[in-house]
Amino acid sequence: MKKLLLLGDSIRMGYDSFVREKLAGRAEVFFSEDNGRFVQYTLRTLSDWQGKEKWPADMDIVHWNNGAWDILHLNASACGTDGEAAGVTFKPENLSHNFVYDKDPLTPLEFYRYFLKRTFVRIKQLFPSAQVVFATTTPVIEEQASWAYRSNKEIDLYNAAAREVLSPLGVRINELGAFAAARCHGHHRDWVHYNDTGCELLADEVIGFLEKEDLL
To answer: Which of 7-16, 81-90, 103-112, 171-180 has the lowest mean pLDDT?
Structure first.
């Protein structure tokens, strides 16, 4: 029976149980109850999860995502000040409220590229025989942003960077972001996450991709 590890943020946390249920009897599915958040957090915490959860080192597949946290811009209005120094905050034109946000995303693009590669190396250190799959970041409903701001344009930019960095390393790219944009619109629980219907659709797509790639 194949061993599949699901890594990633709260989007992964939405579909992981569906994947486990649907693959019962076909694959052992492992995941952490912790949110993988941004890529540097996943890099830092991966070995802690592995030790705590006793994940087997002979994992066959690691299906991984990071990005939604990396591209977020923190709400500068919420801290009761004008944010950072003058000129480095912005107000998105497509939002009706008066919040302003930090100009820079949590993980600048060049850092994202760097930490993606380091995280891949860490995955292979812990699970040397695993085939690694990276899932692109799913879209958001920008107009509902509040405590932070994410843009789909930036999501596309970071997804492109992930392809450029990881594909040459032999990482297979699951275009989960494109799938969600086409098939999961209208199944949101909030501006970022999906309801059970949307999460089950994502789970089916994850399984379908692994089957198409002959990994299951």
So the answer is: 81-90
Query: Does any domain span residue 38?
Result: yes
Structural domain contains residue 85: no
Say if 188 falls within a structural domain: yes
Tell me the C-alpha distance between 37 and 8, whole Å.
7
How many angstroms separate the CA atoms of 137 and 202, rounded? 12
Q: DSSP assignment, residue 146?
A: -
CATH number of domain containing 20:
3.40.50.1110
pLDDT in tens, 32-50: 999 999 999 999 999 999 9
Single-letter code of the amino acid located at 202: L
Average pLDDT, the chain: 94
Number of compact structural domains in the chain? 1
Interval 74-96 mean pLDDT: 72
Contact 116, 162 (CB under 8 A): yes
Under 8 Å between Cβ of 34 and 47: no
In single-letter form, the type of residue at position 99 comes to: F
